[in-house]
Amino acid sequence: MVVAAGCQLVAMCDLAIASDAARFCTPGVKIGLCRSTPMVALTRAVGRKRAMHMLLTGEMVDAATAVDWGLINVAVPATELDKTVADLAGRIASSSSDTLAIGKRAFYEQIDRAEPDVYQAMSEVMATNAMAPDAQEGMGAVLHKRPPVWSS
Fold it and tell me: Which segments of the protein form a coiled coil according to its record (predicted)?
């Protein structure tokens, strides 16, 4: 069971994988507490109405619902959890760490900005990224039909 600040932690993660037996809740309302800090990340992860449902009822949300609501990415049987996490981590780690850092920074920079000006900012990120050594290596690897060798 993932409770209160645990829900906050999950909601703050870029990616989250859980056992299909996992349950999530913010039960503070049942003991007279407003879950004020978990609500920040929770609202951004699942949206206003779903967050309010969790915050105002304190009810459990099962793993399938957590996937549907966007609190977690995937729910797998507990016996497959370690393998699933390791596989995802391996796929991410096979990319350039510089490119991942640029992408993650750009993602969070654009998420709350107005659409018209965010395209300009992201075009600048794309142009800068395209000139980076690992981008050049990646494009060269595609052209020469070989795996890339990242500098980072």
Answer: none
Q: Is this structure's pTM higher than 0.90?
A: no
φ, ψ (nearest 5 deg) of residue 82: -60, -45
Report how far residue 54's alpha carbon sits from residue 42's, in angstroms, rounded to the nearest whole number.
Answer: 9
pLDDT computed for residue 64 by the predictor: 98
- Taking residues 92-120, what's their average pLDDT? 93
For residues 96 and 92, give the distance between their C-alpha atoms in angstroms, rounded to a whole number.
9
Q: Which domains does the chain have, with CATH numbers?
A: 2-91 (3.90.226.10), 95-143 (1.10.12)
Q: Using CA atoms, how far apart are residues 121 and 114, in angstroms rounded to an integer? A: 11
Question: How far is 104 from 32, CA to CA, in rounded Å?
Answer: 37
* Res. 112 pLDDT band, cuts 50 70 90: confident
Closest by Cα among 14, 21, 17, 20 to 83: 17
